[in-house]
């Protein structure tokens, strides 16, 4: 009360409090093991199992204390037979043999390598793997392979894009996007979203929501920003998707479906920056700039709160929030709207707080949504 907290696990932690202190390490071992297994299911396009392990990892992450025995995890939600078996093995032996086998498995290693390229998903990785390819040089030397533009750019900037983006770089990019937006549309509003709005130290890209105070003004906003970035010589790659948003549509219960706002997936040239921990395969090292992935999405201003809540993440948090809305409240939530099935009406919101209130949930800040 006044609402139920989505991640409320106090019932569990209370029952754990009697125990003696232990190494925190074990939980990380289990989480890492779950992550490897989830990744492998993703490579094999077994979405259900993948999600089960991601969810289990997320549950462990939310626990304020370490896990010591299987008995302690009995009442935890989202843990199935397989996840429990892995956990038990790690608790007993300090390692999971299934995971170790995977880590040294040629197929897993190759998929991990290939899917680390921008524009290469499990399907392409599978095609290349079945074609006998095992390394980047083999892929690049194979004349029968046609790389699409995204993959070409992915290989070209592999070293930069596979490196992490820092908070400082996210800040510089914020200023750049801010200026590009306001140079063309003075009233434009830019908000940092994604991992960096959850106070993460590093990210794989930087996400922004851009909109205008006037409804409809957002329609030309992205193309204008893209033009401006191009004029400044910053645009290395742009994959622009115009809006397909339909105000009459009910929110989609499927989380994995992309939202319908105009958006673009960019690679920008960021001056005065260097990649840390990246591998350079195509370019020299002392360039004084780096390539970085940036996502821009531009919802109409009256959908701003839904877009912000949807893009703030984490993905697991978003999934759980939608599931909670549907299962516990009879409401449909997505990046565009909230629909109350009991009253058969859309619920308007101008802030994230409004949406939490509609759902009867206590508001939590983005940094508390790192599920
Ligand atoms: P990272 O540091 O890895 O970038 P992140 O949380 O920012 O972490 P992203 O993949 O950038 O992860 O996604 C940010 C948010 O944007 C997620 O919550 C996701 O739901 C949303 N999102 C990403 N791509 C799309 C898309 N195409 N359509 C709708 N929502 C998307
Ligand atoms: Mn991101
Ligand atoms: Mn993103």
TrEMBL record:
Mention one GO biological process in which this protein takes part, according to its record.
Answer: double-strand break repair via nonhomologous end joining
Which Gene Ontology molecular function entries are recorded, alphabetically?
A: DNA binding; DNA nucleotidylexotransferase activity; DNA-directed DNA polymerase activity; metal ion binding
* Residues binding Mg(2+), per UniProt: 205, 207, 295
Location in or out of the cell: Nucleus
Q: Which GO terms describe its cellular component?
A: nucleus
Q: Does the keyword Cell wall biogenesis/degradation apply?
A: no
Keywords, alphabetical: Magnesium, Metal-binding, Nucleotidyltransferase, Nucleus, Transferase
Any idea of its EC number? 2.7.7.7
Q: Which cofactor does it need?
A: Mg(2+)
Can you state which reaction this protein catalyses? DNA(n) + a 2'-deoxyribonucleoside 5'-triphosphate = DNA(n+1) + diphosphate
- Indicate the family of this protein: Belongs to the DNA polymerase type-X family.
Record's function text:
Gap-filling polymerase involved in repair of DNA double-strand breaks by non-homologous end joining (NHEJ).
Q: What is this protein called?
A: DNA-directed DNA/RNA polymerase mu
Q: Which species is this UniProt entry from? A: Gasterosteus aculeatus aculeatus (three-spined stickleback)
Segment of the intact protein contained = 93 to 463 of 463
